[in-house]
Model the fold of this input.
Amino acid sequence: MKVLILGGTSEASALASALAEGGVPALFSYAGRVKAPRPQPLPTRIGGFGGVAGLGDFLAEQGITHLVDATHPFAERMSRNAVAAAHRSGIPLIALTRSPWVAQAGDRWEKVVGIEAAVKALAGPPQRILLAIGRQQLAAFAAQPRHHYLLRLVDAPEAPPPLPHHRVILDRGPFTLAGDRALLRAHGIQRIVCKNAGGEGAVAKLTAARELGLPVVMIERPAPPARREVHSVEAVLSWLHQSSPHKAERGV
Ligand code: 3Y8
Ligand code: NAP
Done:
């Protein structure tokens, strides 16, 4: 058995630790989106594969027997490529993902589909807005220049974002409730824009928003491709055990 984890989330890191502790031969893969990604307890490669064909070649060259897509729910292209490459290679694939967040009593969510709808939702008088969507899609908000944006990024942007009133906070999660509550208060945040990432690593801002009665523009996640999906490291481990060629050889 040799597992490839497509990573970049807290769940991927938890799975990497479990496989490393269990002595399961595995590789970890990052896209290379940030300068210093969290080190992993597995041999790690960084950078794109070169589309479906590139991933297929990598799977063959490395003798990968099982592919785990533990990327983020918004990593649409990677997840689609993983399904296509696994199918072509005849290699079993499983997705380790997290359920979407669901609004609770006291939440003031405005659900939108896509970044353009999130931008449109910001029509209206100037506000102090936490944009917690990372760096890749900031430019779209130049269409709503009158707000004061607090931008939470992993790395400093190469060029200043095209937002006349903004402030950058450099921080990587997982985030804490105390930290996010303090952040919202210290910057007088009146509204949050975020993606429905799910999981524990980014949920603190939503809990703090609920406590402070702040509205949230919630960008719904794209529909994932058809694939086997689980929501826990344990479920991945039992899938690996069930589908390991070794088990088949033993005829059990
Ligand atoms: C490079 C690798 C771990 C993984 C930690 C999780 C939690 C903290 C919360 C907010 C939301 C956001 C963003 C976020 C979170 C975890 C997880 C998660 C959101 C790292 C990491 C990589 C990235 C890429 C980065 C994106 C950006 C998105 C920031 C590592 C730290 C906003 C997503 O500057 C950039 O270009 C950043 C790009 C893709 C979204 C975007 O479009 O800008 N993640 N984040 C991965 C790679 O190269 O393959 O260093 O750990 C991972 C984590 N970020 O093991 O502890 O599990 O989701 N990441 C979102 O959810 O909306 C921040 O500020 O409240
Ligand atoms: P994406 O748009 O779906 O992928 C674009 C391209 O990036 C892919 O086609 C692939 O390039 C490369 N890629 C993506 N993830 C990769 C990985 N783990 N290993 C190797 N190559 C990868 O992806 P994204 O949304 O930019 O996310 C990039 C990374 O950040 C992923 O690891 C993801 O888990 C993490 N992340 C993303 C978000 C988010 O909001 N999107 C949030 C948290 C973490 P090739 O086509 O060349 O193979």
